[in-house]
Design goal:
The chain is an alpha+beta fold. The protein has 13 helices and 17 strands.
């Protein structure tokens, strides 16, 4: 076993908060230590190629005893014998139809522990949320939906479609199929209920999930805050990505204790979702991904009122226009009228007799605050400075959590998506938008497990991914502890050296 793999196994079973995450499984096991060990096992599977490989590593002389010894230092008591795939399978059989409810409780505990880790490493601290006009990366939650194409390491009968194969045959056959070898093994789906949909002309298959995470500077300074599976292959029904996403985001925000000020999602985040986030005290950011290499982010359209955006998969989107209101004020006894319109997330002022365009003056955002709105909800109120040739002190307040006047549409004036200022002012936000995709890519790269699948059901696959997220968070925690330890050793050496110099001077 390599040092890296050994380290990941140790990290998995010594991860903080395993007891709380495993608590919903306690009624189904003989001892609490068994449940804790099996949750650590689910995380540790991602450190090896397969369940068989993990079982073999844990059965190696001295491996499990050393893990138990390290756990005892943390006050954690693990069982004398190591967890195995069969023990996990038997546990899940005992949980049976209660697994969905148990997973909900495990997810809630996972999120609570994730915030403990995040705060320890300097993320999601309440004092980090300051002026809402200027997002702070460490207090900005990134979220995204993704489709996992995880493969099962089993053989599939080409006639009946039956999943079958012996333990050794599955491993051998899968390696051959994965590496392009022979054997005639059909590569079956890792889960039985594979979904499919078409998005932007591309067919997506697999199991869809939504992830929420937060990240700071540094490769391992990232914490997964929660995951949620959405059930429908259709992207526009009541079980769609955004329904699942909003439910997840609200659950995560409820555990944030004020440490999340902003939430970055892709442009599936529309006015209704921005409104929902605003009412729970978070500024929603509908950010577009970066354009493909060699493509400009913005491209002028001579035939239209403004530019066209490009994102990395070559999708295009026109700017959005919406009339907000006409603002009247008196200057030297004469009425002065200004038409205010939303243009792709920004507020612009133009003549009441003309249509708005992206070339009209931008109303600068002077203040962005949350105010109580009753029923434990909040309103997000923006104060704009309206350009006027007669005065420089014309301000106007707009409550962004509400409807456009005379319309059933929600505001998209979240000040994050203006066109001309997109590259210049919000380059950092576009980078943060990639944080969620980075986490997704990391988890996807681990999802092609050789060996026995935990199950052929999406619910149990969700448990697998929870273990994946648990390992990511444990690595972040381990890196933090290592840095503290290194600093403590360095300080101890400095103190010892100083003491020696003092003693030498005395002598």
């Amino acid at each position: 076993m390599s040092h890296c793999q050994s380290s990941k196994l140790l990290i998995s079973f010594c991860a903080p908060g395993l007891e709380r995450i495993a608590a919903p499984l306690f009624p189904f096991v003989g001892s609490r230590g068994d449940a804790v060990a099996l949750v650590g096992y689910v995380a540790a599977r991602w450190a090896t190629e397969s369940a068989e490989a993990l079982d073999g590593e844990l059965a190696s002389p001295g491996v499990w005893s050393s893990i138990c010894a390290e756990a005892r230092v943390l006050g954690r008591v693990l069982p004398e014998s190591p967890p195995t795939f069969n023990k996990l399978r038997h546990l899940l059989d005992r949980v049976g139809s209660d697994l969905d409810d148990v997973l909900v409780l495990m997810q809630q505990a996972f999120t609570a522990e994730a915030f403990e880790i995040a705060r320890s490493v300097g993320l999601c601290l309440q004092e980090g949320v300051g002026d809402l006009r200027f997002p702070v990366r460490e207090n900005t939650m990134s979220a995204d939906g993704t489709w996992f194409k995880a493969l099962s390491s089993v053989t599939v009968d080409p006639v009946t479609g039956e999943v079958r194969g012996s333990r050794s045959g599955r491993v051998k056959g899968t390696r051959a199929a994965t590496t392009g070898g022979g054997g005639g093994v059909l590569q079956g789906p890792r889960v039985a209920e594979v979904l499919a949909t078409t998005k932007e002309g591309k067919k997506l298959t697999g199991v869809p999930f939504v992830f929420a995470s937060v990240r700071g500077e540094g490769a391992l300074k990232r914490v997964v805050l929660g995951i949620s599976r959405f059930h429908s292959p259709e992207l526009d029904d009541n079980r769609s990505e955004m329904i699942a996403a909003m439910k997840l985001l609200k659950r995560v925000i409820a555990s944030a204790d004020g440490g999340i000020g902003w939430c970055v999602y892709d442009m599936a985040l529309v006015g209704t979702h921005l409104d929902e986030l605003g009412r729970v005290g978070v500024v929603g950011i509908a950010a577009m991904t970066a354009a493909a290499e060699g493509k400009p982010h913005l491209e002028l359209d001579p035939s239209g009122p403004g530019p066209t955006r490009h994102n990395k998969d070559d999708r295009k989107q026109k700017v959005r226009f919406s009339a907000v209101k006409t603002l009247r004020h008196r200057v030297n006894g004469v009425w002065c009228d200004h038409a205010l319109s939303g243009v792709d997330g920004a507020l612009r002022v133009h003549s009441v007799s003309e249509e708005v365009s992206v070339h009209d003056p931008l109303c600068e955002l002077e203040r962005l605050v949350f105010v109580p709105a009753g029923s434990k909800e909040l309103d997000l109120v923006a104060t704009y400075r309206v350009p006027c040739p007669h005065t420089d002190s014309l301000f106007h307040d707009i409550t962004l959590t509400g409807m456009l006047p005379g319309s059933s549409k929600k505001f998209m004036l979240n000040q994050i998506r203006p066109i001309h200022e997109y590259d210049k002012q919000f380059a950092a936000l576009k980078g943060w938008r990639q944080d969620s995709e980075s986490v997704n890519s990391t988890m996807k790269s681990r999802s092609h497990l050789w060996g026995r699948a935990t199950s052929l059901s999406n619910t149990k696959f969700e448990l697998d991914l929870l273990g994946n997220a648990l390992l990511l968070n444990a690595q972040c925690w381990d890196e933090y502890v290592s840095q503290i330890s290194s600093c403590a050793k360095r300080d101890a050496k400095i103190r010892a050296s100083s003491a020696r110099r003092v003693q030498a001077t005395v002598d």
